[in-house]
Write a structure and sequence with these properties.
It is a single chain. The protein starts with a helix and ends with a helix. It has helices spanning 5-21, 28-38, 44-57, 61-75, 80-94, 100-119. It has 6 helices and no strands. The radius of gyration is 13 Å and the shape is globular.
Length: 120
């Protein structure tokens, strides 16, 4: 089954949620930064809906990250990953600077995707 663009944007919302939650709680400044960064993106409402859904459900960081990573791998290489890394970095920076957990998750995301696509 082919992964659609909509599923990819849902996954990006899950990934951003996992990042915001990794240091304990989703902070209002992180949500504001996410909304600001997404404002000009054509799929911003889809990404934000997915983020809000994960936040309401209070899903675990590992669950949200794993679902998002699998969807990205299934979708394949995309220029959107560069954008999402910029969003992750902006959200991480928003609340008292980037934590060790946040920078670790961003690095892990980049490494896992790079390794996966290089093996193909």
């Amino acid at each position: 089954m082919e992964t659609t663009q909509t599923q990819l944007y849902d996954a990006l919302g899950e990934l951003i949620y996992a990042l915001a939650k990794v240091d304990g709680l989703v902070d209002e400044t992180e949500i504001s930064k996410l909304e600001e960064v997404l404002r000009s993106h054509p799929w911003s409402s889809e990404i934000k809906w997915s983020f809000d859904y994960e936040n309401r459900k209070a899903n675990s960081v590992d669950e949200a990250y794993s679902k998002a990573m699998q969807t990205c791998k299934d979708f394949g290489p995309s220029p959107e990953y560069t954008f999402v890394i910029e969003v992750l970095q902006a959200v991480a920076e928003a609340s008292e600077g980037t934590s060790v957990q946040e920078s670790g998750m961003i690095a892990r995301f980049q490494q896992e995707l790079t390794d996966h696509f290089q093996r193909q």
